[in-house]
Amino acid sequence: MEYLWFWIVAFFFVGYFVLDGFDFGVGMSLPFLGRNDVSRRQVINSIGPVWDLNETWVIVAGACLFASFPEWYATLFSGFYLPLLLILLALILRGVSFEYRHQRDSARWRAGFDRMIVIGSVVPALLWGVAFGNIVQGVALDENHVFVGGLLSLLNPYALLVGVTTLLIFFLHGVLFVALKTDGEVHTDARRLAKLAAAPTVLIAVATVIWTIVMAAGREAPLLWLVIACGAIAAVFLLGAVVFSLRGLDGWAFASAVITVAAAVVMLFGALFPYVMPSTIDDAFSLTIENASSTPYTLTIMSWTALIAIPLVLLYQGWTYWVFRKRVTRVSIEAAAAH
């Protein structure tokens, strides 16, 4: 049962990074695509109806982590307290900015909140990658499963590389979403920006895939085949997203980016398995799926709850995107501004 819940937690993080990932990318693209206030509103309105729904996935993922793997949750949130606090503050800053930027007819007011949207998108996009890079690589855990490393130990080369990778992939993911959801000048600029972002994103992502495979191969990794397969899938579909974007196939480009993000997250969880937090001090001090999980009774109750709740969540999410499936046109923004 604990192995099932390891993958259920992975499922919710896949959903979170796929959905909130393009939210982060849209926020980061604002300085490049928002030439004027109408363009900026067009970019922001592309995620206006869905950004808060996307963000709830991390709450569910955290709740599942707490209930199914309390030892993992406790070690993670105590050891990574400052980075996770910065992520939380950035998400609050971003959410407040979406709601408040239009509350006053002042260019200076809107510009201030636009800057906060950018900051609130860059920080989580980078730090989530750094956090997961450390989880997969392992951190300094003592015999009591307590993190004894310092903050600087979290800023190691592999974790920073994963952080830069998530930053770039989310940026490209968001730009492709803007291209799919807008028209006019913003649509054209988004395609051009995707072309510029493609080369560095592909290079950094491939380097991360190779390093992750090598790292997994150097320790107990029963799912090394999954790591290699998902790494290859992520790389191929990332290239596919770029090619589709260059050919003007916005829907296919965004769908390829979705598969890229999903495959990359599964790759990281595959590299982590059967650990949940490896110890770099002594392998005997590592947290594994078995020694970090809740009791079988707790996991059984949670499984029945998930069996009912997950399909409902997916249906509601799908229905929401279907309702707001149309492009955000420049004409509609200008008409709203006129009133």
Automatic annotation (TrEMBL):
<keyword id="KW-0249">Electron transport</keyword>
<dbReference type="GO" id="GO:0046872">
    <property type="term" value="F:metal ion binding"/>
</dbReference>
<keyword id="KW-0408">Iron</keyword>
<keyword id="KW-0813">Transport</keyword>
<dbReference type="GO" id="GO:0016682">
    <property type="term" value="F:oxidoreductase activity, acting on diphenols and related substances as donors, oxygen as acceptor"/>
</dbReference>
<keyword id="KW-0479">Metal-binding</keyword>
<keyword id="KW-1003">Cell membrane</keyword>
<dbReference type="GO" id="GO:0005886">
    <property type="term" value="C:plasma membrane"/>
</dbReference>
<dbReference type="InterPro" id="IPR003317">
    <property type="entry name" value="Cyt-d_oxidase_su2"/>
</dbReference>
<feature type="transmembrane region" description="Helical">
    <location>
        <begin position="223"/>
        <end position="246"/>
    </location>
</feature>
<keyword id="KW-0472">Membrane</keyword>
<dbReference type="GO" id="GO:0070069">
    <property type="term" value="C:cytochrome complex"/>
</dbReference>
<keyword id="KW-0812">Transmembrane</keyword>
<feature type="transmembrane region" description="Helical">
    <location>
        <begin position="297"/>
        <end position="316"/>
    </location>
</feature>
<feature type="transmembrane region" description="Helical">
    <location>
        <begin position="76"/>
        <end position="96"/>
    </location>
</feature>
<dbReference type="GO" id="GO:0019646">
    <property type="term" value="P:aerobic electron transport chain"/>
</dbReference>
<comment type="similarity">
    <text>Belongs to the cytochrome ubiquinol oxidase subunit 2 family.</text>
</comment>
<feature type="transmembrane region" description="Helical">
    <location>
        <begin position="253"/>
        <end position="277"/>
    </location>
</feature>
<keyword id="KW-0349">Heme</keyword>
<keyword id="KW-1133">Transmembrane helix</keyword>
<dbReference type="Pfam" id="PF02322">
    <property type="entry name" value="Cyt_bd_oxida_II"/>
</dbReference>
<feature type="transmembrane region" description="Helical">
    <location>
        <begin position="6"/>
        <end position="33"/>
    </location>
</feature>
<keyword id="KW-0560">Oxidoreductase</keyword>
<feature type="transmembrane region" description="Helical">
    <location>
        <begin position="117"/>
        <end position="138"/>
    </location>
</feature>
<feature type="transmembrane region" description="Helical">
    <location>
        <begin position="158"/>
        <end position="180"/>
    </location>
</feature>
<feature type="transmembrane region" description="Helical">
    <location>
        <begin position="192"/>
        <end position="217"/>
    </location>
</feature>
<dbReference type="GO" id="GO:0009055">
    <property type="term" value="F:electron transfer activity"/>
</dbReference>
<protein>
    <submittedName>
        <fullName>Cytochrome bd-I ubiquinol oxidase subunit 2</fullName>
        <ecNumber>1.10.3.10</ecNumber>
    </submittedName>
</protein>
